[in-house]
C-alpha cells in the first residue's frame, strides 16, 4: 500500500516531468527506471555496510553509481550525460539481475534538459527503501487523467514484480552478504 509521502513524491516527480514528457505512460516509465537505478545503488551501499561488496555498480559501471550521479560537484550537463549513458548501458551490466536488464532494455531519456533531470533525480533521491511494502512501483498508482487504476506497459509490469522479490530471486555472490529489506525482516 502506498503511503501519502510516497504518493506525494511520485506526484512531484510526475509534475517535474510533465512539461518535457507529457505522456503519463512515459512519465511512469521514467520514474520506474530512476527508482530501480537508485534501488540498485542503495543495495550496493547496504551490502558494503553489512561487510559485503558492491555487485551492481562495479568495474566499468562504478562511475554510474547513484552517489556519483548525485554529487554536488557534477554540473547539469555532466549529470545529463552520465545518466543518459548509464541508462543506455545498464542492459550490458552482468552484475544486474536479468529482470532489471530487461527493464532497462530500450530505455532512454526522452528530453535533454539538465535542470529538469536534476530536479527529477533530486526527487527520486528522496525515496528510501526501508519498508518494501510501502513502496509500490509507479505503474500501480491511479492515473489522474483516467481516474482508474491501470498498469502501464510490459516494462512497468515487470518492474512491479520486482517489489515482491524473495532472497532466492537474487543470485548471491560468495563475497556479498546483503538481502532485500523485506527478506531481512523475515529472518
What would you note in describing this structure?
By secondary structure, the protein is mainly α. The chain has one domain (4-186): N6 adenine-specific DNA methyltransferase, N-terminal domain (Ferritin, Up-down Bundle). Helix content is 49%, strand content 2%. It contains eight helices and two strands. It has helices at residues 4-17, 24-49, 66-69, 76-89, 98-104, 114-124, 154-162, 181-186; strands at residues 142-143, 148-149. Helix 4 crosses helix 6 and helix 5 (98-104) packs antiparallel against helix 7. The longest helix is centred in the first third of the chain and has 26 residues, at 24-49. It is globular.
List keywords for this structure.
2 strands, two-stranded antiparallel sheet, single chain, globular, Ferritin, 8 helices, disordered C terminus, mainly alpha, 187 residues
